[in-house]
């Protein structure tokens, strides 16, 4: 591709409203443009990356035995009514009416559609297991779209749904998908981790998230240094301890719940943590007698209820129920009032804590969720009556798995993990081009133009994806643009080196430079 | 691919509500399933074809210098307000509101979005010409979706938009697209024709449609047998003739128009055609003094206005204005009342008419429109202020071309043109699989299973796309399914032939059968 016949669309200025580095770089490097809040057009360079990501996903899904289909973006409401999600789902589900005033949704996910399909197509256990996937446009009407395509409204997902007559079969496919996901992110040369996860509102029991590690990640992940254990910090349990000392205590007064779990406006519960620890809301909300979602008392209420400020509480005289984190409970176990304290897991796990798996200690890293696999069980198949005749000729409801990858999100996550002050640094397998060919002042030098054209023809004929910068620009502008776009390998053709039939090779990631014979460039690039 | 691990989804019964053969066969051969009116899921076999069509389109667009982008399905209303299409477009444009009650549309086309993009990205004539395309999901809220994906609501389009500072540049890109479209349909081995077309509501001046010829086509196309001339029958002009004889006359009394072109309730105009010819409404509506759309008088009015029935009119005594088709005017030119007749092109061109191009005579065939190229001129760029600085540093509005292919529609059109009573007959380049491997009673014969497995492994290793029918089905069921699905080449492995290390080859299109040595199958298939 010649830049003169391409839409490079690089920008010097960092856009003011782009908060995260991937969003800034995707705009500056000409990967995307905003059409409206949460809606982006993929420019040529961005789409090349997106297509490479999609193709790797497709190849590994096929290898793992999944079969590709394509479902509509627009889905009829009646299927969502069958599962109850028409009512349950919040305003992220964009509900629309067609010209005949019939209800539809713009699909944020396709459990309903695929389950309806399989309900009609599959009648015998002999046709199972079946794992169907698509790479397709989804819509989620985020209240505050942000971070560019990282949390956009329209996005590209790979979503797969598997159907089974036994738990063993579901587990087999789940394991195969786990393996395929590992291969997918390995092939993209991303530093990633599979992480035990909560199944959340989608339902089911077993679930893993796949995270690309990056300092800017929204999620904190707890790893064991002595095992494969990895879990979202919110979910990692801390362990009961025999003894502990603390440098001080933190108190949080929260609303109590009545017998029905409803907030009980006149009663309160006191939570106690060691100084420096962080309250884990999810854990606190699961405590018996605590209202969920958590309602924290203001200073006035604290004074009224406890007769003291948060800094000045005497646990011995507190009259409300007290939950103390395991560490605090161990530190206070010899106090006279210890018996009115209930020990509980209240805090976020931290680096240095023993791993919940029993092996090693915990390290914390930040990650960006790019994939999620679930064992759904029969949540959707039961609600929609999706079953088959089993070996004994009896109708049996299927179990399901579902397996997502945020294809467009992977592009942003890869940038969060791979960039420097000059721009993006693409891993080769998802780079928009493998090689940037940069002739210096070509339009003033016939022999540089000839050498560049010949090398471009040779590399292209060898199947190498080359971005040939044939613009009438100063070399400095070209270097900066190619670095910003993040092409892994550059070949620079200049007068002085050309005297000796040499060109300069530069590696975008390492910064290493070397001189190559013109005649060996194609073989060198091919061998990278 | 093994059928046992695939979703073949063939059906014996012809679905009752499928009117056209492509719709019937796409359902029966397991290519698509209906989700709701005009909304279809692409099953694995259908998606394989769709992806092959899309890839051929993509390759030829790239070769022709177009650059791929991807725009959102959901588009903000304000762009459609800028061009006035927010008001102009009918209810086919599905208007939606997001959670903040902001107006959006589900894009049926992307002129507004691309023009807004280019307006922001391109500032100099040096960056032109530019031809951007996408292969993407579109939505058109058809009042009566029918014929399956042929006239569905959600569909896959390739749409391209080019931008130019001169008419010559636009013409160059238009010609390049014309050439690319010819290559695309040639590569798909479809019998197609480029046809001169009306530009309709999308605006602009020069336009060609690309039609796949098929008896079931909705459009009649007039071809010259002496030149490349081809036009939609509605648009092909008939020629004035010097002399003619007619076997009788037809009379059509239509409402007159007043000076403002409005229907003039008390006045009428008489149109006269030769017996056997068909009135062309579009041509009649363009006649001076005739109301558009055409309003035809009922028998009572004919009697009141002309004092006779349509069968019994005496032209000599008619008091209203008379337009006669060229043929009629020539036949009556020696009549005393000839001077009150205005000669006009009133009828549809017919087989045997001289070609409007001056060379050859006309033949009529039916076609399915699968592509359309337009020179839009400045309709959108003017309305949206999309221009660049020209060589003299002055701001100049760009001219545009647009170029569409109905990617999903091509799949249906290919079937309309390529089928027989047994099912689909795919051209090789868009077939879901190249070879059907059919072992007879494999589950009862170890040596047939071994031969089939070995051949499957060999063909797959050679890069051939094989559908290996490893189901426990009777051979007759397998044969019927593979014919229905339309796989171009079949290899049948049976006991008797295997005694001599032979297999049977069958060509789906010609029905030819031949015996092949097991060892030569892969080379034979590779050479097809």
Automatic annotation (TrEMBL), chains A, B:
GO terms for cellular component: cytosol
Catalytic activity field: tRNA(Pro) + L-proline + ATP = L-prolyl-tRNA(Pro) + AMP + diphosphate
Major enzyme class: ligase
EC number: 6.1.1.15
PROSITE patterns tied to this protein: AA_TRNA_LIGASE_II
Domain of life: Bacteria
UniProt-listed GO biological process terms: prolyl-tRNA aminoacylation
Keyword Transmembrane on entry: no
GO MF annotation terms: ATP binding; proline-tRNA ligase activity
Keywords (A to Z) from UniProt: Aminoacyl-tRNA synthetase, ATP-binding, Cytoplasm, Ligase, Nucleotide-binding, Protein biosynthesis
Domain named Aminoacyl-transfer RNA synthetases class-II family profile: residues: 38-427
InterPro entries: aa-tRNA-synt_IIb, aa-tRNA-synth_II, aa-tRNA-synth_II/BPL/LPL, Anticodon-bd, Anticodon-bd_dom_sf, Pro-tRNA-ligase_IIa, Pro-tRNA-synth_IIa_bac-type, Pro-tRNA-Synthase_IIa_type1
Localization annotation: Cytoplasm
Entry annotated with the keyword ATP-binding: yes
Subunit annotation: Homodimer.
Task of the protein: Catalyzes the attachment of proline to tRNA(Pro) in a two-step reaction: proline is first activated by ATP to form Pro-AMP and then transferred to the acceptor end of tRNA(Pro). As ProRS can inadvertently accommodate and process non-cognate amino acids such as alanine and cysteine, to avoid such errors it has two additional distinct editing activities against alanine. One activity is designated as 'pretransfer' editing and involves the tRNA(Pro)-independent hydrolysis of activated Ala-AMP.
Family: Belongs to the class-II aminoacyl-tRNA synthetase family. ProS type 1 subfamily.
Domain statement: Consists of three domains: the N-terminal catalytic domain, the editing domain and the C-terminal anticodon-binding domain.
Name this protein carries in UniProt: Proline--tRNA ligase
Organism for this UniProt entry: Alteromonas alba
Gene: proS
């Amino acid at each position: 591709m010649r830049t003169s016949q391409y839409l490079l669309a690089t920008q010097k200025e960092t856009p003011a409203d782009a908060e995260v580095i991937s969003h800034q770089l995707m705009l500056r490097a000409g990967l995307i443009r905003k059409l409206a809040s949460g809606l982006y057009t993929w420019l040529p360079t961005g789409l090349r990356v997106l297509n490479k990501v999609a193709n790797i996903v497709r190849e590994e899904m096929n290898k793992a035995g999944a079969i590709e289909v394509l479902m509509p973006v627009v889905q009829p409401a009646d299927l969502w009514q069958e599962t109850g999600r028409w009512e349950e789902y919040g305003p992220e589900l964009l509900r629309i009416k067609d010209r005949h005033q019939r209800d539809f949704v713009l699909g944020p996910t396709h459990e309903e559609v695929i389950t309806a399909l399989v309900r009609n197509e599959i009648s015998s256990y002999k046709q199972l297991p079946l794992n169907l996937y698509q790479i397709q446009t989804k819509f989620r009407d985020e209240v505050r779209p942000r971070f560019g395509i990282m949390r956009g409204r329209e996005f590209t997902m790979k979503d797969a749904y598997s159907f089974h007559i036994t738990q063993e079969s579901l587990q087999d496919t789940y394991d195969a998908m786990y393996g395929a996901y590992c291969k997918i992110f390995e092939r993209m040369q991303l530093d990633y981790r599979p992480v035990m996860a909560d199944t959340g509102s989608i339902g089911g029991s077993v679930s893993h998230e796949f995270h690309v590690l990056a300092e800017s990640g929204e999620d904190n992940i707890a790893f064991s240094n002595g095992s494969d254990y990895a879990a979202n910090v919110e979910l990692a349990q801390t362990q009961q301890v025999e003894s502990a000392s603390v440098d001080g205590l933190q108190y949080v007064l929260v609303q109590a719940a009545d017998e029905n779990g409803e907030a009980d406006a006149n009663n309160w519960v006191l939570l106690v943590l060691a100084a420096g620890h962080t309250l884990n809301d999810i854990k606190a909300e699961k405590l018996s007698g605590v209202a969920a979602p958590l309602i924290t008392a203001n200073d006035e209420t604290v004074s009224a209820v406890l007769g003291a400020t948060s800094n000045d509480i005497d646990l011995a005289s507190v009259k409300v129920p007290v939950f103390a984190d395991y560490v605090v409970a161990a530190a206070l176990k010899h106090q006279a009032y210890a018996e009115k304290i209930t020990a509980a897991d209240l805090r976020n796990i931290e680096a240095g804590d023993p791993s919940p798996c029993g092996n090693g200690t915990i390290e914390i890293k930040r990650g960006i969720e790019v994939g999620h696999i679930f064992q759904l069980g029969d949540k959707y198949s039961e609600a929609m009556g999706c079953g088959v005749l089993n070996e004994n000729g009896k109708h049996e409801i299927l179990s399901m798995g579902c397996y997502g990858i945020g294809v467009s999100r992977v592009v942003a996550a890869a940038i969060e993990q791979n960039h420097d002050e000059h721009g993006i640094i693409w891993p080769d397998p998802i780079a928009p081009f493998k090689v940037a060919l940069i002739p210096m002042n070509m339009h003033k030098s016939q022999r540089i133009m000839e050498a560049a054209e010949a090398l471009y023809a040779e590399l292209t004929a060898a199947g190498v994806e080359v971005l040939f910068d044939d613009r009438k620009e100063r070399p400095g502008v070209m270097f900066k643009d190619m670095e910003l776009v993040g092409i892994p390998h550059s070949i620079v053709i200049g007068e002085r080196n050309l005297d000796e039939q040499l060109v300069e090779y530069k590696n975008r990631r390492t910064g290493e430079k070397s001189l190559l014979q013109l005649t060996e460039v194609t073989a060198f690039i091919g061998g990278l």
